[in-house]
Amino acid sequence: MATSAARPIPREGRVRRAADLRPGQDPSARRCSSRVDAATIVAMTDIETAVHHRPDSLLRVVPSIGAGVAAIGMALYQVLTPGAPQATFGSALDFLRDGLFLLYLVASIAAMVLARRQGLLPGIGAWLVGVGYGLLVIGVGAGLVLQRDPEWFGILGLPGNLLAMAGFITAAIVAWRARRIPGWVTLLLAVGGFFAVLATEFGTSVLIGCFWLWTARGVLRPARES
């Protein structure tokens, strides 16, 4: 069987290839340069991907961590000082109690808004919690300034609690139907949010605290994996 002879490279092709090389450059150097350029492009792509998955700022996790830590702190306070909260400010522990409560309310509002923007808690539930807890912030903040619970606190406290409880339940149902959060996390959100303030003397705020810490963990995970 006859073998085909190697086809000679046309003179024009040899001239073109020679023109691509700089004077005094070895042909193997061009191949090495091409490999380096390809590796550089791949590295730049990896960097862009990592930056894309990295959280934009600590603002995405600080509210969730703050709400979680404050809620668990409230539960620990109730365990160490059993009994219903008193409307007095006779010691530093009383300021600590209301300070933790105020931090929990403010951080929960911010965390709810961010969770809705990120698509974790779609629907109107986040806004209900924000409005309800906003009313409570006014009353609790005034109590810290006046060093006593204002007489008009009930006017804001009752509708604020009702709106917040309805918001947590709504957010949990919508998120579960949309498959945004696991089932057990849905229970933390619904039950924990419903009883966070209603039965705070029993330390129930630990449930909603665990939910917010889980949320912060979910936001930080893509940055670690990238």
TrEMBL record:
The chain crosses the membrane at residues 58-79, 99-115, 127-146, 152-175, 187-214. The keyword Transmembrane applies. Keywords: Membrane, Transmembrane, Transmembrane helix. This is Uncharacterized protein. It comes from Streptomyces brasiliensis.
